[in-house]
Design goal:
The structure is a homotrimer of 139-residue chains. By secondary structure, the first copy, chain A, is of the alpha+beta class. Chain A has a single domain, classed as Sandwich (Jelly Rolls). Chain A is built from three helices and eight strands. Chain A has helices at residues 20-30, 56-69, 86-96, and strands at 2-10, 15-18, 34-41, 46-52, 99-105, 108-109, 115-121, 128-138. In chain A, the strands form two sheets. A five-stranded antiparallel β-sheet of chain A has the order 1-8-3-5-6, with helices on one face. A three-stranded antiparallel β-sheet of chain A has the order 2-7-4, sandwiched between helices. The relative contact order of chain A is 0.39.
């Protein structure tokens, strides 16, 4: 069995947007009980991550970390035509990745207690980000 | 065909724990000859990685690298209630990821000669880490 | 349906090598219309990434970034027998990963407009890098 659905995340600029419920709903509707759930973001300046979902300070601290290792307005970058946050967004996207694969057990994504699925916008301005979820396995 | 198994890694605190043999055993028992093997760690302060498996200095040097870019006791972090190593553990986990997908060929994970699969504990204290392996493909 | 193919990328030393067309050809030949395409690189000192495919400056700037956080000749590393670029290559490989999973829709990898698939050589010298593509899904 293979089920595939696409949805759009409208971001508010740099920061995270939780998509755990949207992904779990697609898995529940798929009829797959054991298998894999793949989540993909079709962009190069935003990414996906699994992150602690209880304390929002964790995600704020991750921004602090990224701002230190990949700051905006970096004078060493050549690709600057699209703004001072564009190349740092590509760096952050490459470091964190655009795809996640999760186990499906008993008809749902078997995440750890504190694992949430987040789309992470790395550009300063709001964007519309396309996400595709593919669920594969036995019913 | 879809086979799914879970096991627990008991870590000794910060450092790596090789799980290649445990994963290969699950693949061998699965009966899948061609397909994919997905490995997932259900936690946000430990991660999975593929790493050079011949010289343990490589993994020691990776700790050196992480200690430099994500040091403990970072004064800029807000999420500090669970200890000075907690937020750095989340950062390291996000940078290296909690899921790996590997090709299965001829009934085994087709890893490169020097590729080992490691669970990487990022907290200072020992923990029990749950790992789920899903093998999908044709028999 | 499961189809698996292997090919070799001959690199010219440190830098990126686009493999999008090679991967799309395997997907097109597979007969899979909906499912997943998994790409795997069997080495620990080179990696795979999705990256902006329009402006080559993006990939040059990524090298600039990596040279800053994981420079060659780092005096803190112990694993130096294979050269001053070897341990930095392992670090870069661990940060960016050796596997990518992509959605297959309508018989092709459904990449975003600006997403290209790149093998990223992290060693200074040219190498031959083995890549395995596995396509899984319904026809």
């Amino acid at each position: 069995m293979v089920i595939q659905k696409t949805f759009t995340v409208t971001t508010r600029g740099r920061g995270t947007h939780e998509i755990t419920a949207a992904v779990q709903d697609i898995v529940a509707d798929s009829g797959v009980t054991t298998g894999l759930c793949h989540v993909f973001l079709h962009h190069t300046s935003a990414s996906l991550m699994l992150c602690e979902n209880a304390d929002p300070d964790v995600r704020a601290d991750l921004e602090t970390f990224m701002a230190r290792i990949a700051p905006d307005n970096d004078p060493d970058y050549v690709h600057t035509a699209e703004g001072p946050d564009d190349m740092p967004a590509h760096v952050r996207s490459v470091l964190t990745g655009n795809d996640l694969t999760l186990p499906v057990s008993n008809g749902r994504c078997d995440l750890g207690t504190w694992q949430g699925i987040y789309a992470w916008e790395h550009r300063s301005a709001p964007h519309r980000r396309r996400v595709t979820v593919t669920v594969l396995g036995s019913g």
